Amino acid sequence: MKRFFLIFSTILLNPAFCNAQQVKSPDEFLGYETGTRFTFHHKVTEYCKYVAAYSTSARYESYGTTYEGRELGALIISSPENLSALEEIRNKNLIMAGLAEGTSTGKQLPIIWLSYNVHGNETAGMETAMKVIHSLVSGSYEGAGDWLRECIIVIDPCQNPDGRDLYVHRFTNAANLVSNPDGLSREHRDGWPGSRSNHYMFDLNRDWAWQTQAESSQRIAFYNKYMPHVHADFHEMGAESSFFFPPGAKPWHEVITPWQNEFHTLVGKENARLFDQEARLYFTKETFDLFCPSFGDTWPLFNGAIGFTYEQGGGGMSGLAYKKESGDTLTLKTRIEGHYLASMATIKAAYENRDKIISEFNLYFADNSARPQFSYKSIIIKGTNPESDLNDMLDLLGKNQIKYSYAGNTGKKYKGFDYLKNSYGEVTIEKGDILISAYQPQSRLMQVLFEPDSKASDSLSYDLSAWALPYAYNLNTYALEEKIRPDEEKAGDQTDLKSPMPERPYGYIVNYSDFNVLKFISALHQKNLRIRQFLKPVRIEEDTYERGSFAITRGDNTKLGDKLDLVVKELAEKMEVSIDPLTSGLVTSGKDIGSQCTPEIKKPVVAVLAGKDASSSQTGELWYFFEQEL
After folding, report:
1. What's the confidence (pLDDT) of residue 517?
2. I need a labelling partner for 38 at 20 to 30 A (CA). Which of 101, 246, 391, 447 fits?
3. β pairing state of 580-582 and 507-510
């Protein structure tokens, strides 16, 4: 009796045990059985925060907001001891990868990252995430306690909240009181645009490398804080399909390591074991290859992790229940169970191979820095490229943690591959040229993004087969086999010899040089400034301005008074545009400022035709271009 009392007292005094027992299941928290209805995104966010508040084994981190204002966040799950040392563990992982400076201290634990619902209408993912979370923090799944002691597990329940809620709103609006499994019924029909994509109708699963969308850039900035060792991305495919898990189909990109390949097989075997126990159908090595860097399996692979795609048969048209051609009914509960088994198989396989995962991760980045396999050891991007295009690409490199610098060896001539001419030629390195060296932690990712011709072992690929950045940005770029040293001095330290800007000039002139100028003109239009455009080249003193250049005059904008100068200068600085003062309406040669050859341009009003007969992705691209880029 005394022994029983001591054991009972120990359990009661253990806060981790008490918290685990107190945490409600998703069913208890939501008030309905998971899988019997679709859960709105905010309720899942509330559940994650609730778990973090009541369990010492969970911590919630918000990492951003969507275009429509929904919160992006993830739950980090581990033992209380590991969570208390999370910052140290996180830093050590980055230091070992060469992506952070400092002295490595403490232990390095495998970081296992599970991401769900990147496509809004692939709804089983977010429902599954709640079930996985509860199984881990409650310790109800066999081995969960060991996993939490030895691993850091990150659960991102929904990568695309805007698309997710669009689907749930539509389904809820159209759903029958008793779910109708007939695929022709209204509840199985998504509207236009499809809820697969985000607010701007972009497919977020094709945005990992490019990070054009707010959800992608914020998620990957959060991802880069930890640099996980394993990343699994959970999807759904057609309702008539079974379940896909690794290994992936060919082609595999050549930078994928033997260990990454081997672990794909190990995870596949663990999935097969669990699926066999439940007599569930599945397939491997088909359809979903590992080649293009756009995806949630390939981009992590090129960042040292072992990335996986999981595909559960179902998708948007499945609703809560769908009658298949076989006559069987596919339910949301069945779809959730498939992703649940795959989630647990991934964590278990990672736990059992944790030492190897860490050692191979560290070796991946050490080899990148010391022994890059890319045949081109240096990429030279000419500093004379249009500034806005060059800055856009440098911004993308920064988001992908690819290091760059100004190129050294100025004045020297080298032979190299000229991207824009698609042939070998010569380049002389000049002050201001950008160097991307293959001798860096992200060498393999750099190779993937800059190789002129990607080598594929199979002619069929799931998506893109070419994507080299110099082509995408149309930049004058050369790939050299030599290792070029960086320039330690800052480029562009050139003294501005122009006269100081007068306080109240006649107006301002802007040479039409790059896209930043269009952003500047658009911003001026938003302020209702009147703008003139030169239809022919002009020369003002020693400076020549090409056809298409713009003039903002004081005489056209008298309503602004002295505010004109402040508005123009602030917007020019914000858009990184060089403006010159006009001292007169008279030009040295060409047509004067007030000429009919320099007419006022009207603020454009743009109409984009949209609807069920239009491509949603192309409509979204135009919408995004006007609102976010221009």
Report:
1. 95
2. 246
3. antiparallel
